[in-house]
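Record 1 of the preview.
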Amino acid sequence: MSAAARQPGHARRFRSGPAAALAAGTAAACAARAAYAALSRRPPGGETLWTRTNHRGEPVTLLEGPALTVVGVAGSAIAPALPPRARAALAVAGAGSAAFGGYDDLAGSGSRHGFRGHLGALAHGEVTTGAVKLGGIGATGLVSAMLLGGGPADVAVNAGLVAGGANLLNLFDLRPGRALKVALASGALLAVGARGGPSRAGALPAVAGPLGAAVALLPEDLGERAMLGDAGANALGALLGVAAAASLPRPARLALLAAITGLTAASEVVSFTAVIERTPALRWLDMLGRRPVPAPPVPGRDDPPPAGPREAGASAAAASP
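->
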């Protein structure tokens, strides 16, 4: 009898444990870099379609989002130790959220923001791309939750986690690397401690692929060459939502849903960026790995010196006809 046959439990632990997750994450990281390079060489529809202006007024590409989504969804679909229902839920959540987010990326005008903006427009008969995205991601979350299974209460909570996670992570995609840092921290916490939900397999197999892709593309985001966009942020948030729904016990899922709901409601009246800027620890984390932000000019110190008599005379002579 072979050593592998004598130790079936050890073989199962390797196929589903940290070593397998590390291998899956590493493969996803390599695949994400390759996907991003391929998309950058030949952007679908042309480079202009995917180019946006960032907070500095510089051009960045949205191709990071599709690259992360394709690899994250594929990695989740073939992750070890996940039951078929969880694989299907991850695929639906990631692909559906990316599709609706991509629609808003490419077709949206950006004139409306947040639930209040899109629902307010809808109340006046205007169907914005953001409203279509919100409805589509809500439906995607419901289908994903139904695939995971459980009673009506579990389906409702899990649908909220998937849709809410997709929307919340997108709210952080306002500065370089911010959404990816939030996703990596959230995924790491899930991977370490989450077990007891419908899948009973823990979150590690579900998050290995998406987090590996996120790590690989983080330098592009921090370097302000690319950004997730709605497609990438919505997909990554939805995948984390499914991982939480599949691995957390019901009390923890309820607490997490309450936190997501509270943060989303707060975003309607409070700027996350303003809060981060006012909090030293959060600001340090937010700036970690980023390009320095130019200091604003100080009145009186950074103003040009006044012209002397000779310069003033020369200026007047130059200005005279």
